[in-house]
Amino acid sequence: MTLKIAAIAAAGLVLAGAATLAAPGAEPTDPVSRGRYLVRVAGCNDCHTPGYGPAAGAVDDALWLTGDRTGMSGPWGMTYATNLRLLLAGMSADEWVNHAKHLRTRPPMPWFNLQAMTEDDLRAIHAFVTSLGPAGQPAPDYLPPGQTPSGPVVRFP
After folding, report:
1. b/e per residue, 22-34, with b = 16+ CB within 10 A?
2. Tens of pLDDT along 135-151?
3. In what order do the strands lie in the sheet with 71-74?
């Protein structure tokens, strides 16, 4: 094989590799699409979108991240998934990054996962959530242990 043919073959392999990287399922790069991807794979919808789990994720985007009135009950009391669309609508990207990096909440929110995200990840999440616009109602307030909630509950040991 001549050097010219080898170079063409090598270039073809590089292009094939690049096409593989851009294949379906690859992480998007524009902030809003990347934020949507991160929200989906990080499991934010699992708690912050009503009915998401039981519907196997087949929930209209209009409901995404509007919080949930299902209480999460455990030794810490009763917590509710925040309406992230209302929360982030009132924050700049810088405020959101600072909030996420210093957040400490009650279970079952995995706040430590937010703190492990890069600043770019958090900014992409902000871009996506704010692109949805504010919607829904605020989540119910936290209830201390021993108080009875008015709606459905998931109980943790």
Report:
1. eeeeeeeeebbeb
2. 999 999 999 999 988 88
3. 77-79, 71-74, 153-155
pTM above 0.70, yes or no: yes
CA 24 vs. chain centroid, Å, equals 20
Q: Are 74 and 157 in contact (CB under 8 A)?
A: yes
Query: Tokens for 114?
Result: 């937010």
Give, to the nearest 10 degrees, the angle between helix 93-102 and helix 119-132. Answer: 120
Position 81, amino acid: A
Backbone angles phi, psi at 53, to 5 degrees: -65, -55
Closest of 13, 25, 20, 137 to residue 81, by C-alpha: 137
Residues paired with 71 in a beta bridge: 153
- Interval 45-62 mean pLDDT: 96
Task: Give SS3 for 154.
Answer: strand
Residue 128 tokens, joined: 């996506």
62: DSSP letter: G
Pair 63, 83: CB distance under 8 Å: no
